[in-house]
Design brief:
By secondary structure, the chain is an alpha/beta fold. The chain has one domain: Formyl transferase, N-terminal domain (Rossmann fold, 3-Layer(aba) Sandwich), CATH 3.40.50. The protein contains six helices and seven strands; from the N terminus they run E-H-E-H-E-H-E-H-E-H-E-E-H. It has helices spanning 12-22, 41-48, 64-77, 94-99, 120-127, 162-187; strands at 2-6, 29-35, 53-55, 82-85, 104-108, 131-138, 148-155. It has a seven-stranded mixed β-sheet, with helices on both faces. The radius of gyration is 16 Å and the shape is globular. Bound molecules: 5-O-phosphono-beta-D-ribofuranosylamine (GRF). 5-O-phosphono-beta-D-ribofuranosylamine is lined by residues 7, 9-13, 86-87, 107-109, 134, 170, 173.
């Protein structure tokens, strides 16, 4: 099973997925990195693995359809089966969604439908919830609105800082994402 990772940032989830493949826990292959941030840390990590990449700057294009058309070409050239968003800070448009129906997944650092969008960790702290966590979901045209595939909770301890909660959530993301991708690959749409 051939995966493309879409990422805009640090790439710790990319690394966790890559690691799970290397240990045999996840039976898949990462064949392409797509990033909309030419300076992102994730690119250095992908380069260490000599991973093929498509890096673009949205400012160089008239609209989303234009750069997503190029992305689709790259995905097809690399025969990608699944698109795994790992901190890709951009809404996916119809060009990609129509070509990869129920084949695009995302991970979000809250228990959706609570706290969609930017700074989910900050939003959770602000709201004073005692429980937050992470959600893996199919991607649709909305902001973190697609059908939920898997969730895991994290207890918000009194006085916890944003960084502490983020670290705690990312720790479980790094386990849950590879595990869930493996289940999806094995069971397809049936779970
Ligand atoms: C993750 O916490 C994920 O939930 C969110 O963006 C973050 C990406 O982190 N969508 P990283 O780039 O994988 O380290």
């Amino acid at each position: 099973t051939r995966l493309a990772i879409f990422a805009s940032g640090t790439g710790s989830n990319y690394q966790a997925i890559d690691q799970a493949i290397k240990t045999g826990e996840l039976d898949a292959e990462i064949v392409l990195l797509v990033s909309d941030q030419p300076g992102a840390k994730v690119i250095e990590k992908a380069d260490e693995n000599q991973l093929a990449k498509f890096i673009f700057d949205p400012k160089d294009y008239q609209n989303k359809c234009e750069f997503e058309t190029e992305i689709v070409n790259e995905l097809q050239a690399h025969q990608v089966d699944w698109i795994v968003l790992a901190g890709y800070m951009r809404l996916v448009g119809p060009t990609l969604l129509n070509q990869y129906q129920r084949r695009i997944i995302n991970i979000h650092p809250s228990l959706l439908p609570a706290f969609p969008g930017l700074d989910a960790v900050g939003q959770a702290l602000e709201a004073g919830v005692k429980l937050s966590g992470t959600t893996i979901h199919y991607v649709d045209s909305g902001m973190d609105t697609g059908e939920i595939i898997a969730q895991e909770s994290v207890r918000v301890k009194p006085g916890m800082t944003r960084e502490e909660l983020q670290t705690a959530i990312q720790k479980i993301e790094h386990e849950l994402y590879p595990k869930t991708i493996q289940r999806l690959i094995l069971e397809g749409d049936s779970f």
